[in-house]
């Protein structure tokens, strides 16, 4: 089946279109959405097995040969990201079935989620820089719809910011692609990389690299471009926030990872140095936010900024260990962020507020939720043998290998403060004197717990089974270390 | 009291013009295969004709003349476009690969039939559906 790389994009697209025919029949919507995502997961697993066995898979859309048409390229990195995104979306939709109001579900919630998945999987898979922009737009438009869903006043205010920021960064994206095209005369990512090497990487390429960093940094929320994130992400309901927090910023991170290893690896003294500094500043700012706030949403949202910084520091170091660590940590962070958002979602639903002062003593009545959160918090901070540990270890090792002392130490220090910020929620929310809660019933909370626990279980398996996962991670990092693998697979020379 | 607007001229002209616009949009649609035109621009022009009708009359009249659910039209158009692209999967060809051949049709003589037309019909329906949904949603609040 030569179209295999396409299936994780095509299946949710078909499901989304099918859902558009009867937006008001909620039961059918739920079922078809779940079946569609399950199909996507199966297709991604088959694709991962195929990539593992036979190397990078490509499809030239419309049979137009490689440098001219649009290729879809599934290397191990993109397959793993597609698989993780699809699994996450499955659990989040499962959670949303119990969490969301019917009024949300009637207003195209599932359709929006499916289109979001189409855009995200497409962005991870495409091998054409302009097509990457197109898939960015697909998931952004779906996200515009999801962020205003509900139409509360705070939400509308934040969504205007969100839309404005993204419209501007999309415009910059097109401009950056145009600059790149004017220099290299091609949009095929493998071919772009080849041409930059042929041209001897003139100075203008470094300028374009910074331009791309600006564009993807806005989406990926690195310092100083993260300013819109805490406000906008606190607006939508928890399941949507979980999708945004776990997936959308990671697409920006992936794009930086891809372009900085495939295109802009010639002038590392400039571009990667800037990336490293910005990544470390993101960690610092994120830690300050996560420690300072007492609103559970905001705490976890600032943790997104920290994780983005850690991953990008790994990318900037550019050693094999650091890149493997960045891939490992990227996948870990997607899973654990989604799990944490779902868990604090239950706390918010119980307490009827997202502020820690309104919570306390939940562990007495909800021990399962409490201990699940505890494990998730440890995994977030990277306590061995949980999943955050291996990724951070590799990144720190890679950082030391480059001779940088400050970066790795800062990351290690940030882990402690991340642990503190996550434990703050545990101590104030679950310990302490129990309060009267007037939110959802205990039965309902337990129903919400199941998908969240499922995600935490995956995170644990990912950490404990790191030995089994590692060959896949290694394979994913190969084209990042040596771009010629990617180029040869796409252009078949 | 609000004066009833005198739009007799607009309404009379619209009844004729809108047909011409629709016919021209269909011409553009088919011309689009090798020359400028195609599903997107054809759909926009058809939508323009419908908007002209909407301006000259009102939403209710337009819904009686053309009782379409534009959201369903969007969905149907998307479905047609996606399935046309996915049709290539059945023949184990890359997605969006199209097929064409020349056929001898009665009256028309030798004609080129291309699966890209099906895809374009999908695009055409999506463009009309989306444009009309947007305009109706804005218009309804008044």
What can you tell me about this protein's structure?
The complex is a heterodimer of chains A (493) and B (142). Chain A is an all-alpha fold and 493 residues long. Chain A has one domain. Helix content of chain A is 78%, strand content 2%. Chain A is built from 21 helices and two strands. Chain A has a two-stranded antiparallel sheet with strand order 1-2. The model of chain A has no long low-confidence stretch (mean pLDDT 92). Chain B has 142 residues and is mainly α. In chain B, 67% of the residues lie in helices and 8% in strands. The longest helix of chain B is centred in the C-terminal third of the chain and has 25 residues. The model of chain B has no long low-confidence stretch (mean pLDDT 87). Classes of the chains: A mainly alpha (493), B mainly alpha (142). Chains A and B meet through helix 1 of A and helix 4 of B.
Key attributes of the depicted protein:
heterodimer, A: 493 residues, mainly alpha, 78% helix, globular, B: 142 residues, 5 helices, 8% strand, elongated, MnhB (chain B), CPA3_antiporter_subunitB (chain B), transmembrane (chain B), membrane (chain B), transmembrane helix (chain B)
Mean pLDDT across the residues of chain B is 87
Number of strands of chain B: 2
Low-confidence stretches of chain A: none
Tell me the domain tally of chain A.
Answer: 1
The structural class of chain B is mainly alpha
